[in-house]
Every structure is written in structure tokens, then in C-alpha cells.
Amino acid sequence: MNGTHLHYWFFESQSNPSKDPVVLWLNGGPGCSSLFGALNELGPIRLNLNSTLTPNPMAWNQRASVLFLESPAGVGFSYKDSQDYHPSDDSTVEENFGALKSFYGKFPHLSGNDFYITGESYAGIYIPTLAVQVIKRKFPETFRGIA
After folding, report:
1. Is the dihedral of CA 99, 126, 12, 21 positive or negative?
2. Nearest Cα to Cα of residue 21 among 122, 100, 138, 116
3. Apex CA 141: angle with CA 140 and CA 145, to 5°?
4. Which of 15, 79, 107, 121 could form a disulfide with 28 if both were Cys (CB 3.0 to 4.6 A apart)?
5. How far apart are CA 126 and CA 128, in angstroms?
6. Cβ contacts of residue 134 below 8 Å, gap of 6+?
7. How many whole angstroms separate alpha carbon 111 and alpha carbon 93?
8. Whether pTM exceeds 0.90
9. Neighbouring residues of 111: CB distance < 8 A, sequence distance ≥ 6
């Protein structure tokens, strides 16, 4: 979107990906990579202090397809071609909405699955502002809620 490149990791549901919900996870900060959530909290693998990986028995993708989005641009592996990093809540919501449109363009087979937005920390600002845009723009149509 306009020279903005938001990085994500996507883990498809281990149960029934054609029917299970799609969950967007956002870490806050602003400035905390959502890969922290993916590798230390709810993703399918855990990065241990000794740099080894172990399966996460409590991974959310056991029953949902989970999208970990690094936003705003400048966080983690997300960047802008212009290297102009002065994010606001308004610009972040526009970037995140653009990322959602791009995600469903790449994974159209998931467009009928229920969709939820969740996260932690400053994502408590990003989540409801994105939800407002999702509702206003009626995309995705399967939006069901936030946490």
C-alpha cells in the first residue's frame, strides 16, 4: 500500500482450516513486533532462551488460523520505501486495513471464515480503530468481534 510493506506470519489452523476462524493478532507498544506474540505466547512454536524451538501445546492455531501482523511500518520487518517513520493511530489503522485487503487477496479461500481481531498492549488502540474501519467498509464481511 503506497510503498508500505507490512510483514506477517500466518499459521493456518491445525484443525479445520476451511471452517475455523481467522484471527488477526497485533502486539502494541507501539513498536513491539507481533512476532513476540507468535514466538513467545500463542504461536505454534516457542523460541526458548537457549535459542531452541519447542512446540507450543497451547497454540491458538490448533483451532483458528492466526495472522501475526507487524505494524505500524517500522516495527519488526515492516518498512516504508520512503523510510518516513512517523506513525499515528490513523495511519496505522489505514496500513492495517490495507494489509487485511492484501491478505484476503492472497488467501481468498478464507474469506468465508469468521474473522476476529485481537492483541495486547497498545493494540488496545489499534484493535477497536481497525474494527471501526472493518465495519464501515464492510470488509471482511465475516467480521465477528474483537478481544
Report:
1. negative
2. 116
3. 80
4. 121
5. 6
6. 97, 100, 115, 117, 140, 143
7. 20
8. yes
9. 104, 140, 141, 142
CB 45 within 8 A of CB 39: yes
Nearest to 75 by CA among 140, 119, 42, 133: 119
Q: Tell me the pLDDT of the chain (147 aa) as tens digits.
A: 689 999 999 999 999 999 999 999 999 877 899 999 999 999 999 999 999 999 999 999 999 999 999 999 999 999 999 999 999 999 999 999 999 999 999 999 999 999 999 999 999 999 999 999 999 999 999 999 999
> In one letter, which amino acid is 57?
P
Q: Give the cell for residue 79.
A: 518498512
| Residue from 91, 104, 135, 137 nearest 24 by CA | 104
| Strand 79-80, strand 22-26: pairing | unpaired
Helix intervals (H) in 1-147: 35-40, 89-106, 123-137
